[in-house]
Amino acid sequence: MALTRMVVLAFAILLSGTRATNGQQPAAVATLVQDPVVKAALAVAKDTEARTIEDQIRFCEVPAPPFKEAARGEVLRREFAGLGLQNVRVDRVGNVLGDRPGGAARPRVVIAAHLDTVFPEETNVKVSREGSTLRGPGIGDDCRGLAVMTAIIRSMREANVQTAGTVTFVANVGEEGLGDLRGMKALFGETMKGQIDRFVSIDGTGLHVTTVAVGSHRYRVTFKGPGGHSYGAFGLASPIHALGRAVAKIAEFQVPQHPRTTFTVGRIGGGTSVNSIAFDAWMEVDMRSPSPSALANLDARFQDAVDAAAREENSRWGKPGVITVVKELVGDRPAGEAPEGSPIVQTALAVGRTLGLPVGLGEGSTDANIPISLNIPAITIGGGGRGADAHALTESFDTTDAWKGAQNALLLTIALAR
Ligand SMILES: [Zn+2]
């Protein structure tokens, strides 16, 4: 297994080496920006920022709760068609796709922004505006990304930018929480499997370039037993006591600081009354690391701790098999890293430098986790402006100089599609 993995990895590195010599030229970004057509496109991105902001508000006022992104998806589908994208389509899971063909089908660049929010269905999604500040749930994360994506398409269209490769724009589902990157899992595993050479997600605000993909494993663990009266059935192994043993073991885990590796038992529950031996007990556990091996190691120790807890509770009362345990994987975001020296990261940094923007590298758990874990060149960038209170009802977005974020994303798209 380990050997197979290593061979696959070596092959992937070889492939990405081939890609590096085939189109992505970070050094050429400074030249690219002198091209009159590119200059014109950048001017459109700046001059139509008011329109971009209007789009941002319009998209945001259509609710997009987790697993219910279809209404906002339909707005983006119409937008893609109206902006002249070709082969506009919706895939099995609800990702909305549209192509902007270049001279050839490859390299294929995907520019994505996520449709979903963390907010439940009944949330008031009306956006208010006060000076340069917009307020509304999701206004930055990720209505800004969706709006910047349409600004890219509009700018390339109005300036008639020609690219060597083809760009596919994707408004995707399932980035947040229990969405568990299902939009990306379907895009890379099914809808466009084997067809994507470079990937950029525009997510949130500011000008970060996320290259480190923090992975996570989340479990719901359920201990079960026959249960009984606290006095009458005394001597029976207890699911709650087994859970307590498991939590005690997890609480003592030692984890590396570098790469930063974390764990928590986030929720627990179980039992029916104070005078009962419970028949069930459950917990939800979250583990994270940017290192696939550190995450796998932590996961293995977690599995052992849970199994040992059930075993020890049974042997405490001398009856094996009374308490059973089920571990259900409810979240799985693969970890990885786009190397700082890789062409896509260098191109993103060159774009920032060329435009005089303070672009810095960062880490996070984003849609780019999926391609990064597949060794496909991928990053996540911000859509510009300044955001605050993401994932809260008080979320806001400061539009001051936000057009710089649109220009940044536009120039990166053009540079990657050459
Ligand atoms: Zn987001």
How do you describe this structure in short?
37% of the residues lie in helices and 24% in strands.
Report the count of strand segments: 19
The major beta sheet can be summarized as: 9 strands, mixed
Strand percent estimate? 15-25%
Number of domains: 2
* The CATH architecture of the largest domain: 3-Layer(aba) Sandwich
Helix content: 25-40%
- How many separate helices? 12
Main CATH class of the largest domain:
Alpha Beta
Going by helix content, strand content and strand pairing, the class is alpha+beta
Shape category: elongated
Structure description:
The protein is an alpha+beta fold and 418 residues long. The protein has two domains: 12-213 and 335-416, Zn peptidases (Aminopeptidase), CATH 3.40.630.10; 219-333, Alpha-Beta Plaits. 37% of the residues lie in helices and 24% in strands. It contains twelve helices and 19 strands. The protein has helices spanning 2-20, 29-32, 36-47, 49-60, 70-82, 143-158, 182-191, 239-251, 292-316, 343-354, 369-373, 403-416; strands at residues 86-90, 96-100, 108-114, 128-130, 133-135, 166-172, 198-202, 209-213, 215-224, 228-229, 262-270, 276-277, 280-289, 324-333, 336-337, 361-364, 378-381, 386-388, 396-398. The strands form four sheets. Strands 1, 2, 3, 6, 7, 8, 15, 16 and 17 form a nine-stranded mixed beta sheet that branches. Helix 4 crosses helix 6. The two termini are 38 Å apart. Mean pLDDT is 93; it is low at 1-23. Zinc ion binds next to loops.
